[in-house]
């Protein structure tokens, strides 16, 4: 659950039960002298520059705020290694930080941990246009990776709304999903190699690994999604795909979620290799978006219970449009949707996407509770129905002074991923009590995941048992202990 | 290196330096009584049925032969769990075995290890046509998985020449690559969840996991490619793709490997989403295949230094053929190849594939040394050139009585994977001395992998350092020790 508040609060105050581990050393002048001996002035930020420090302590959602007095911004893997070795030897706690766009409090300190920012490691290392292998420092901003590959007729196999800020290394550490997963698959398949600095300063690298390599356990996989708890990713090798030459989209209205699923099956079968997104929104999320996008004309004539945006991308505009038109006609004929439009041109394509991409900000205007979950497709929307019913029966949804504006669901049908947003006028203990643990228990009862793509971080640390078995959690703890025996890396989080 | 010999030899005799670990218990009547108490008669094979036992001791290449007197073939995960717990408690060594089509001696015993065959766990568990999630027992034969999914308008995302024998669980344990990797990606991306029995009998399962799940370290990844050394995979959940409606292929002759790479870049750009295979063969491998396929007419008029087979698969035959024809014309115009043909119909498509699929048997008639490696594409063919030059300079290649018929290379351009085959009239120490460690050192110097898709097994156990760093090997050993502290699972192999 993410409560959005305009004012940041110290995490340590908001969660008084979490206490600073006493075996972590408090930074002193000896430590500072050491860091100054290996780093230049623009690679260290200390307490005196408090305004800049604040941005490293504060998370993207403004929900968590740490109290670090020291940010290190090394510009090489070797320096990261020296920093980690020193911190491990001296039991100084460290939080690795990428673009700090994380949504679960994973990338900011809780107490006085040192922030290790990868921001100064921002170089593209190499690109091989024949194989599509792209290698870069962890701190390369995703937008820059996209631009570089775009200029070389390729695309980065993942895109996110936070592309202007998030780092490639942070995305890998989070195992982010994003908008292209349906087409290009997950990072576990696309990451070819990683360069990682371990808590003791050792560098473990598979960055020169090739597309196929069957020489032993695939260790790099553990760092994908580890949120910086067992090592600091400093370099990434990833498989870039050929850049599509044509994009198109349709936007349609559908009366129930069973038909949404039927349409998805049809799209997989008929659009097949050119299908690149299949997104859904419920009536409530679109109603809020219509209010939010006041000046834009809604693309459909009528209102429906569900809306679906289908994107195609391929190498031949004429072929793609033929396929999409045939799909549209036959879906209308089979009454799979009540109403649908196809983008007339690229501007129209962008406009249709605006109706999907504006749902999250439209639901956030008044603040809200946000959940990111994955479920079997047949159960995907049921969590939204169950939660809405529960809140409605308690008489909490409606016009002011009721506290809840709307409870809505939207997300990625192709990935079985729903975002549940409860838009509120005011945060109340009553709403919270109705939501938790109900939502997590509901997801557990359907064998779903309580975090589809946002991760665990500080936020869901105590909730893993809703999605993972005791034995899995025990093995995860063993992994943490093995790689980070002193527990200095990103403490108080994850596992 | 794989030496193919027509007669099987006891591994223990062929490798006298490998000795039986004395802390493993020798099976006695108490053990047999226990296994009989939990298994029915058709789930146990003992010494008396020696002929059937032999097939479990003998590997696919007839290079390795073990001496097991006991094969257990449990039909449920619970029985696998009981077996493993008992074996762990009693220090009985165990070799998990799937279809036993492995090429590196991973799936047969070395001494008297118990063979744990997954053959009786052969049920499809479920298929969800909406999400494409396919769940099955580990012992389902890949051909049956393909057939099941074919009947449900989907395809298994991986295919292998050994599809009639290999098991789904074995394929995952080997992290097999196969013929569709270029299109559908690796098992690390496609496997959604695994059910695994650990050496101590505990069951760790993520088989209900969904396409997106970011709740902690992705532990299942370690078992993909672990070759049964840290757990026994008993169930697999995998993402099936929609079945393509159209297939086509072109076969062409090319004069040098630089142009092969140029053609690959062009194919990725122009065929893009319908490109599903890009295979190459050198002149020598095709010459041997022409001899092997005596009665078949070679599809091209002239001979060339390289041959490429390009496959497309998609959802619209007319669109695909248009793309492929345009590609063929423009590649001919740009002189990217000297000669090329496109399949006229499905039978012709199958015939073109025969010229690629027959290369391995054509190179094996006289026996041979086989290497499976991956390299950066620019270096891919250079290993074949370097090895051939070395053998030729030693005067070993040519007509009888020279020992070597031909040294040839072929493989998957799309995956950076070359198979180097030295077809011989006779195996000699001189050839072996020229090949090793030269081949491994060459691969190491180019930062390639000494095993692209076949794995490590018994065969490459001592060679990992050519592709992996000391720290990686140390961490791999730690993984093994952690999951299998008694070392009972698939001993003498891997790491």
Automatic annotation (TrEMBL), chains A, B:
GO biological process: lactate metabolic process
Residue ranges crossing the lipid bilayer per the database entry: none
GO CC, alphabetical: mitochondrion
Gene Ontology molecular-function annotations: D-lactate dehydrogenase (cytochrome) activity; FAD binding
Key word Protein biosynthesis present: no
EC id: 1.1.2.4, 1.1.99.40
Domain FAD-binding PCMH-type span(s) in chain numbering: 64-243
One Pfam family linked to the record: FAD_binding_4
Keywords in alphabetical order: FAD, Flavoprotein, Oxidoreductase
Keyword Transferase: no
Names of required cofactors: FAD
Enzyme class: oxidoreductase
Top-level division of the source organism's lineage: Eukaryota
Record field: catalytic activity: (R)-lactate + 2 Fe(III)-[cytochrome c] = 2 Fe(II)-[cytochrome c] + pyruvate + 2 H(+); (R)-2-hydroxyglutarate + pyruvate = (R)-lactate + 2-oxoglutarate
Protein family according to the UniProt entry: Belongs to the FAD-binding oxidoreductase/transferase type 4 family.
Protein name: D-lactate ferricytochrome C oxidoreductase
């Amino acid at each position: 659950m993410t409560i959005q508040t305009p004012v940041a609060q110290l995490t340590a105050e908001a969660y008084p039960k979490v206490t600073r581990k006493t075996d972590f050393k408090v930074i002193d002048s000896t430590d500072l002298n050491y860091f100054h001996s290996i780093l230049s002035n623009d690679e260290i930020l200390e307490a005196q520059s408090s305004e800049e420090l604040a941005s490293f302590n504060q998370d993207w959602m403004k929900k968590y705020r740490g109290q670090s007095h020291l940010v290190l911004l090394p510009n090489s893997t070797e320096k990261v290694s020296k920093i980690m070795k020193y911190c491990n030897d001296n039991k100084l706690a460290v939080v690795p930080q990428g673009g700090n766009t994380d949504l679960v409090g994973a990338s900011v300190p809780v107490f006085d941990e040192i922030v290790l920012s990868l921001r100064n490691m921002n170089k593209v290392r190499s690109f091989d246009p024949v194989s599509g292998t792209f290698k870069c420092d962890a701190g390369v901003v995703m937008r820059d990776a996209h631009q570089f590959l775009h200029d070389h007729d390729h695309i980065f196999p993942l895109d996110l709304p936070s592309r202007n800020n998030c780092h490639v290394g942070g995305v890998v550490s989070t195992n982010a999903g994003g908008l292209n997963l349906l087409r290009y698959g997950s990072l576990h398949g696309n990451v070819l190699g990683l360069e990682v600095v371990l808590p003791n300063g050792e560098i473990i690298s598979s960055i020169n690994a090739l597309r196929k390599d069957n020489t032993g356990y695939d260790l790099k996989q553990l760092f994908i999604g580890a949120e910086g708890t067992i090592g600091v990713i400093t370099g990434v090798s990833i498989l870039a795909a050929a850049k599509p030459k044509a994009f198109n989209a349709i936007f349609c209205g559908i009366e129930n979620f069973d038909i949404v699923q039927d349409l998805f099956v049809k799209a997989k079968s008929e659009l097949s290799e050119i299908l690149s997104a299949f997104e859904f929104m419920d009536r409530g999320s679109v109603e809020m978006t219509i209010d939010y996008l006041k000046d834009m004309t809604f693309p459909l004539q009528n209102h429906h219970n569900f809306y679906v945006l289908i994107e195609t991308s391929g190498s031949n505009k004429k072929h793609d449009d033929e396929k999409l038109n045939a799909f549209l006609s036959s879906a209308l004929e089979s009454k799979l949707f009540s109403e649908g439009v196809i983008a007339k041109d690229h501007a129209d394509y962008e406009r249709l996407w605006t109706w999907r991409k504006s749902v999250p900000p439209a639901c956030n205007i008044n603040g809200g509770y946000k959940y990111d979950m994955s479920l079997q497709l047949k159960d995907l929307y049921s969590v939204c129905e169950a939660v809405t019913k529960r809140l409605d029966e308690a008489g909490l949804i409606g016009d002011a002074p009721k506290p809840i504006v709307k409870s809505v669901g939207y997300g990625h049908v192709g990935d079985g991923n729903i975002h549940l947003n409860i838009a509120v006028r005011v945060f109340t203990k009553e709403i919270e009590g109705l939501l938790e643990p109900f939502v997590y228990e509901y997801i557990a009862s359907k064998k779903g995941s309580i975090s589809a793509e946002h991760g665990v971080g500080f936020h869901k640390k105590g909730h893993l048992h809703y999605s993972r078995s005791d034995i899995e959690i025990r093995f995860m703890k063993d992994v943490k202990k093995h790689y980070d025996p002193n527990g200095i890396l990103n403490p108080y989080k994850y596992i």
